[in-house]
Specification:
By secondary structure, the protein is mainly alpha-helical. The protein contains twelve helices and no strands.
Length: about 300
Amino acid sequence: MSSAVQTAPTATTPTPTPVPTAARERRRRKGGIIAAVAAYLITFLVLLPIVWIVLLSFQSSSKILSNPLDLSSLSLTNYVHALTSLPLAQMYGNTILLAVVSVTIGTAISFMVSFALTRMIFRRRRVQSALRFYLLAGLAVPVYILLFPVYRLDLAIGVFGSYAALIIPYVGVSIPFNTLLLTGFLRDLPSEIEEAAIIDGAGLSRLIWSVVLPVMRPVIATVLIFNVVYVFNEFPFASILINNPDMVTVSLAVSQFQGQYSIDYGGMMAAATLVLIPQLVIYAIFQKQVIAGMTVGAVKG
C-alpha cells in the first residue's frame, strides 16, 4: 500500500552573490579617496584662519584695511611694537599661575566626583542619577550666562579683582567636561583590578593612588591639556573679573591694542600670534596623549 502523504518542497536559502574582488577593491579605493579629500578640506579650513592671522601680523594696519592680500611689504614692526608695549612675561606668569591652580583643583574634584559616581553605591540610586545628570547638564550652559552671577558672587565673598575671582569660575566650568571624560573611562575600567587590590589589603587611598590613578594617566593627561588650553584662551571672565593691570592674562593681550577711537590691527594680529604659538607647541608635544585619552575605551578587544 503506497502512502498518499506528500512532503512540501523544502525552501532553499539563497546564496549571496559573491562580490568580485576587483569591484571590492574599486569601492575601497573610492572610499579612501573620499576620506582623503574630506581630511584635506577640513585641515585647510582649520589652518586657514591661523595662517591668515600670521600673515596679517606682518602687515601695517593701513595695509590690512586697504589691501590685506598684498604681501609685498611684510615687516616685523608689529612684533617689535607688541613685545615692547605689552608685559608679556607678566601676562604669561599670571596665566600659568591661574592654569596650575585652577586645573589642579578642577581635575582633583572631577576625579573624586567621577570615582564616587561610578564605583560607590548610593543608598538612593535616584540621587546618584540626579547628581550625574546635574553635572553633565553643565555642558549645555553657555559661559556668557554665568558672567553676571559669578560677578555678583565674587563681590559678595570679597574676591573680586584677585586671582581667586578667576580660579573659582575656571574650576566650575571645567568640572562637567572633566567628569564626562573621567566617568566614561572609569565605566570601561574592569572592576576586577580594584577587587584584587582590596583582597590584598589595599585601603581606599592606596587603591586610588596605586591602582586607579596609574591606569587613568592617558585620560587625566587629556583633561589637563584641555583645561590648560581653556585657561589660556579664556577671555570673558578675565575681561570682567580683573581690574588690576598687573593681573591681566595673555588672552587680554589682544584687547590692549583697541582704543576708544582707533584699533591697531597689526599689533592685534601680532599679539594674537604670540599668544597662539605656545598653545600650538603644547598641543604638538602632547597630541599623542590627547588622542589616546579621547579614544581610550572606545574600542574593546
